[in-house]
Amino acid sequence: MPLILSRRFAPLFACQFFAAFNDNFLKTALVFVILFGGTADAEALITTAGAVFIAPYFFLSALGGEWADRYDKARVAQRIKFVEIFVAALAVAGYASGSLPVLFAALFGFGALGALFGPLKYGILPDHLEREQLPGGNALVEGATFVAILTGTIAGGLAFRTGAVWPFAVLVMGFGIASWAAALLIPPTGEGAPALKVSANIVASTAAMIRHLRADHRLWWGALVTSWFWLVGIVVLSLLPPLIKSLIGGDEDTVTAYLALFTVAVGAGSGLAAAIARGRIVLRTTLVGAVLLGSFAFDIGFATLGAPTAVPQGPAAVFSSALGLRAAIDFIGLAIGGGLFIVPAFAAVQAWSSPDYRARNVAAVNVLNAAFMTGGTVLVALLQKGGAAMPVLFLGLGVATLIVALAIWKTMPRS
To answer: What is the pTM of this model?
Structure first.
């Protein structure tokens, strides 16, 4: 039976897909409200939204990791997803009232639940899969995540275009309930560390997990590599909508089309990474992905440098223009590079972690990911407030990623 249909994998696959859809549905709807609603400082506010979603990973990832190692991961997932239904209801209230503060609060709530669920989602895979199945399982999870991003992005854009509350409410509540229902079907895992005492001091427990991660050279390398991927991803996704609107000349439908291309390409890159691995963990694929990430990010900046402010047009007009087509190719290449980059690196972290500490290692990686993403988004927001143009930001991101590729080549574990 294919892995995606197996009893030990399919419920988790569906649960995280529905949750990722809701996260990105809400984020996209919020971006469109800000970008096309006449909000002041829209570009910086969109970047800030990314930081609001990521911030809970700093102080809740450790707790999520301890819960996942101490208790049965399936039971923990079921409780987290039940609470998520009520956060979805808060999002509906914010959207119906047009309140940005309430929408930001709901986004923060989804981020908090994602921080608790993240260590469980990735820590549970080695409980149900063989080692040689990890690259394929991770590729399916990453691919499903980006398909969820795609569908959530398209749905968020369409919900905004309708101007009605009910499509937003039906989707965000429906997928919240579906995620909880799927969690109820996840097979039990047992308790990974039944003697573990969950610490009430989340600062101390987070520091202990980071120290444990830091003590293993391979795990620390994998954590830093995956953190750079998420930094690049959140910066690109925060810059892409205003870049398409302002310099390439896209309307709401065009922004949605570019986001769709980007997310499909990340899924394709993840699938390609799994195909290359063939049950192994091939870290050279991460190096190739880093080079592609850096090169295409640089070309996006170079192609749009000096471009005048454009008049928004539909997808057909934009994709038929030289700049629009070049930008599409660059975003596709960047996204495929991202899929190649992340899948082997994270599979390696899972494989190198001991079973009784695996979820806490994932939690520590998530904290480091959050630090990189938050630092990256805050820096970009400050640069935007200071007048830095989006092409310059892409040029800088491309150069920095090529430097990271060189560092990966020099420090990559050889075994």
So the answer is: 0.77
